[in-house]
Specification:
Structural class: alpha+beta
Number of domains: 2
Low-confidence stretches: none
Largest sheet: 3 strands, antiparallel
Number of helices: 6
Radius of gyration: 17 Å
Strand order of the largest sheet: 1-3-2
Order of helices and strands: HEHHEEEHEEHEHEEEE
Shape: globular
Distance between the termini: 40 Å
CATH topology of the largest domain: ADP-ribosylation fold
Helix content: 25-40%
CATH architecture of the largest domain: Alpha-Beta Barrel
CATH class of the largest domain: Alpha Beta
Strand content: 15-25%
Protein backbone atom coordinates (compact mmCIF):
# COMPACT_ATOMS: atom_id res chain seq x y z
CA UNK A 1 0.00 0.00 0.00
CA UNK A 2 1.32 3.42 -0.98
CA UNK A 3 1.72 6.19 1.61
CA UNK A 4 -0.94 8.90 1.84
CA UNK A 5 1.75 11.49 1.11
CA UNK A 6 2.76 9.76 -2.13
CA UNK A 7 -0.86 9.29 -3.26
CA UNK A 8 -1.48 13.00 -2.64
CA UNK A 9 1.63 13.94 -4.59
CA UNK A 10 0.61 11.86 -7.60
CA UNK A 11 -2.96 13.17 -7.37
CA UNK A 12 -1.71 16.77 -7.48
CA UNK A 13 0.38 16.01 -10.55
CA UNK A 14 -2.62 14.37 -12.23
CA UNK A 15 -4.81 17.38 -11.38
CA UNK A 16 -2.30 19.74 -12.92
CA UNK A 17 -1.81 17.67 -16.06
CA UNK A 18 -5.38 16.44 -16.66
CA UNK A 19 -7.12 19.71 -15.75
CA UNK A 20 -4.77 22.54 -16.61
CA UNK A 21 -1.46 21.85 -18.35
CA UNK A 22 -1.20 18.53 -20.20
CA UNK A 23 1.72 19.93 -22.20
CA UNK A 24 3.89 19.72 -19.06
CA UNK A 25 3.99 15.94 -19.58
CA UNK A 26 4.01 16.10 -23.36
CA UNK A 27 0.46 14.81 -23.66
CA UNK A 28 -2.58 16.07 -25.48
CA UNK A 29 -6.09 15.48 -24.18
CA UNK A 30 -8.77 14.51 -26.67
CA UNK A 31 -11.79 16.87 -27.01
CA UNK A 32 -13.50 15.11 -24.08
CA UNK A 33 -10.48 15.36 -21.78
CA UNK A 34 -9.32 11.74 -22.14
CA UNK A 35 -5.75 10.52 -22.53
CA UNK A 36 -4.46 6.99 -23.05
CA UNK A 37 -3.50 5.49 -19.67
CA UNK A 38 -0.35 3.76 -20.93
CA UNK A 39 0.88 6.92 -22.65
CA UNK A 40 0.22 8.99 -19.51
CA UNK A 41 2.17 6.50 -17.39
CA UNK A 42 5.02 6.53 -19.91
CA UNK A 43 5.16 10.32 -19.95
CA UNK A 44 5.02 10.62 -16.17
CA UNK A 45 7.97 8.25 -15.89
CA UNK A 46 9.88 10.19 -18.57
CA UNK A 47 9.38 13.25 -16.34
CA UNK A 48 10.76 11.42 -13.27
CA UNK A 49 7.41 10.68 -11.66
CA UNK A 50 7.49 6.95 -10.98
CA UNK A 51 4.03 5.60 -11.75
CA UNK A 52 2.73 2.23 -12.88
CA UNK A 53 -0.82 1.08 -13.58
CA UNK A 54 -1.27 -0.33 -10.09
CA UNK A 55 -0.31 2.99 -8.49
CA UNK A 56 -2.51 4.95 -10.90
CA UNK A 57 -5.44 2.65 -10.05
CA UNK A 58 -4.81 3.26 -6.34
CA UNK A 59 -4.73 7.05 -6.81
CA UNK A 60 -8.03 7.02 -8.73
CA UNK A 61 -9.69 4.60 -6.32
CA UNK A 62 -8.61 6.29 -3.10
CA UNK A 63 -9.00 9.94 -4.11
CA UNK A 64 -11.51 11.28 -1.60
CA UNK A 65 -12.95 13.77 -4.09
CA UNK A 66 -13.05 11.24 -6.95
CA UNK A 67 -11.31 13.76 -9.18
CA UNK A 68 -10.38 11.23 -11.86
CA UNK A 69 -12.22 8.60 -13.86
CA UNK A 70 -11.26 5.78 -16.15
CA UNK A 71 -13.14 5.17 -19.38
CA UNK A 72 -15.51 2.18 -19.33
CA UNK A 73 -12.84 -0.01 -20.96
CA UNK A 74 -10.17 1.26 -18.52
CA UNK A 75 -7.83 2.34 -21.30
CA UNK A 76 -8.23 6.09 -20.86
CA UNK A 77 -8.28 8.50 -17.91
CA UNK A 78 -9.51 12.06 -17.38
CA UNK A 79 -10.31 14.56 -14.67
CA UNK A 80 -14.00 14.54 -13.74
CA UNK A 81 -14.30 18.36 -13.62
CA UNK A 82 -12.37 21.49 -12.76
CA UNK A 83 -10.66 22.08 -16.09
CA UNK A 84 -9.21 25.45 -17.01
CA UNK A 85 -8.64 24.19 -20.57
CA UNK A 86 -11.43 23.61 -23.06
CA UNK A 87 -12.83 20.08 -22.91
CA UNK A 88 -16.34 18.78 -23.47
CA UNK A 89 -17.10 16.35 -20.67
CA UNK A 90 -20.42 15.31 -22.19
CA UNK A 91 -22.49 15.78 -19.06
CA UNK A 92 -26.24 16.04 -19.66
CA UNK A 93 -28.22 18.89 -18.08
CA UNK A 94 -30.07 17.72 -14.96
CA UNK A 95 -32.62 19.08 -12.53
CA UNK A 96 -30.76 20.19 -9.40
CA UNK A 97 -31.96 19.85 -5.82
CA UNK A 98 -33.73 22.87 -4.32
CA UNK A 99 -30.52 24.13 -2.76
CA UNK A 100 -26.83 23.69 -3.44
CA UNK A 101 -23.86 25.18 -1.60
CA UNK A 102 -20.66 26.97 -2.48
CA UNK A 103 -17.69 27.19 -0.15
CA UNK A 104 -15.50 30.24 -0.35
CA UNK A 105 -13.21 32.32 1.82
CA UNK A 106 -14.48 35.25 3.88
CA UNK A 107 -12.32 37.62 1.80
CA UNK A 108 -14.29 36.70 -1.37
CA UNK A 109 -17.84 37.10 -0.04
CA UNK A 110 -18.27 40.83 -0.76
CA UNK A 111 -17.18 40.39 -4.38
CA UNK A 112 -19.45 37.37 -4.87
CA UNK A 113 -22.44 39.18 -3.39
CA UNK A 114 -21.72 42.03 -5.82
CA UNK A 115 -21.22 40.08 -9.07
CA UNK A 116 -22.48 36.56 -8.37
CA UNK A 117 -20.46 33.37 -8.70
CA UNK A 118 -18.37 33.42 -11.84
CA UNK A 119 -16.41 30.57 -13.38
CA UNK A 120 -13.30 32.75 -13.80
CA UNK A 121 -10.45 30.50 -15.04
CA UNK A 122 -12.52 27.31 -14.78
CA UNK A 123 -15.03 26.03 -17.29
CA UNK A 124 -17.89 26.19 -14.78
CA UNK A 125 -18.86 27.17 -11.24
CA UNK A 126 -18.60 24.26 -8.78
CA UNK A 127 -21.38 23.64 -6.26
CA UNK A 128 -21.72 21.09 -3.47
CA UNK A 129 -24.74 19.05 -2.41
CA UNK A 130 -24.00 19.58 1.28
CA UNK A 131 -22.65 22.26 3.58
CA UNK A 132 -19.90 20.02 5.01
CA UNK A 133 -18.23 19.70 1.60
CA UNK A 134 -18.66 23.44 0.97
CA UNK A 135 -16.92 24.22 4.28
CA UNK A 136 -13.98 22.01 3.28
CA UNK A 137 -13.72 23.71 -0.11
CA UNK A 138 -13.94 27.20 1.40
CA UNK A 139 -11.35 26.34 4.03
CA UNK A 140 -8.70 25.81 1.36
CA UNK A 141 -8.69 29.55 0.68
CA UNK A 142 -8.98 31.05 4.17
CA UNK A 143 -11.73 31.33 6.79
CA UNK A 144 -14.60 29.35 5.19
CA UNK A 145 -18.00 30.82 4.40
CA UNK A 146 -20.84 28.77 2.95
CA UNK A 147 -23.19 30.31 0.43
CA UNK A 148 -26.63 28.80 -0.14
CA UNK A 149 -27.62 28.66 -3.81
CA UNK A 150 -31.31 28.61 -4.77
CA UNK A 151 -30.69 26.03 -7.47
CA UNK A 152 -34.33 25.08 -8.15
CA UNK A 153 -35.24 28.73 -8.66
CA UNK A 154 -32.26 29.17 -10.99
CA UNK A 155 -33.30 26.10 -12.95
CA UNK A 156 -36.86 27.46 -13.26
CA UNK A 157 -35.35 30.70 -14.58
CA UNK A 158 -33.60 28.76 -17.35
CA UNK A 159 -30.12 28.12 -15.95
CA UNK A 160 -28.60 24.74 -16.73
CA UNK A 161 -26.98 22.42 -14.19
CA UNK A 162 -24.76 19.40 -14.74
CA UNK A 163 -23.68 16.70 -12.32
CA UNK A 164 -20.09 15.50 -12.73
CA UNK A 165 -18.97 11.91 -12.26
CA UNK A 166 -17.72 12.82 -8.78
CA UNK A 167 -21.03 14.44 -7.79
CA UNK A 168 -20.00 18.08 -8.10
CA UNK A 169 -22.79 20.25 -9.51
CA UNK A 170 -21.70 22.55 -12.33
CA UNK A 171 -23.26 25.67 -13.84
CA UNK A 172 -21.98 28.60 -15.87
CA UNK A 173 -22.86 31.46 -13.49
CA UNK A 174 -24.85 32.06 -10.32
CA UNK A 175 -26.46 35.52 -10.29
CA UNK A 176 -26.56 37.43 -7.00
CA UNK A 177 -30.31 37.09 -6.57
CA UNK A 178 -29.94 33.32 -6.15
CA UNK A 179 -27.28 33.52 -3.39
CA UNK A 180 -27.71 33.72 0.41
CA UNK A 181 -25.24 33.18 3.21
CA UNK A 182 -25.95 29.78 4.71
Amino acid sequence: MTSHKELTRISKVLSLVLRHQPELMGIELDPNGWVDVNFLIQQMNVHDIAVNRMLLDEVVETNAKKRFAFSPNGKQIRASQGHSIAVELGYVAQIPPDFLFHGTAEKSVASILNTGLEKRDRQQVHLSQDQKTAIQVGGRHGKPVVLKIHAAAMHQAGYLFYLSDNLVWLTDHVPVQFIDRA
